[in-house]
Specification:
Layout: H1 2-19, H2 37-48, H3 71-82, H4 106-121
């Protein structure tokens, strides 16, 4: 038993000796920069003195958004889309199927009813 432990220790020492390889020293890497030391220092000073540099985006409330459409138009589009009869159906819902809207849109029915009632009231 003592011999097997000695052989195991010798084998581990041999593996460790062959496995360990020294790295070559390349020296200190030279810095590659297109800016001079004064330019870097000036940029660091500007960045350190910048206002609100540690403020997380959105922490001061809602950000302003450029408005491209009137609010009433956007609301009308949203309501029309929400009432669409086949809004959750896609052409991939069933094999070899095509989406054909057979139901009238509720918004169109309501407008037609209002127009019909207005025409008879005259």
């Amino acid at each position: 038993m003592k011999t097997s432990q000695i052989l195991a220790a010798a084998t581990l020492a041999l593996l460790a000796a062959t496995g360990a390889q020294a790295e070559t020293y390349q020296g200190v890497n030279t810095a590659v920069s297109t800016k001079s030391r004064d330019e870097v220092n000036a940029e660091a000073v500007r960045t350190a003195a910048a206002p609100n540099q540690n403020v997380v985006r959105g922490s001061r409330g809602a950000e302003t958004v450029a408005v491209s459409k009137d609010r009433s138009i956007v609301e009308a589009e949203a309501v029309r889309t929400a009432y669409a009869p086949d809004q959750n159906v896609t052409s991939g819902s069933r094999v070899n199927s095509k989406v054909v809207s057979t139901m009238p849109h509720p918004m169109d029915v309501r407008v037609q009813a209002q127009q019909g009632a207005g025409a008879t009231a005259k």
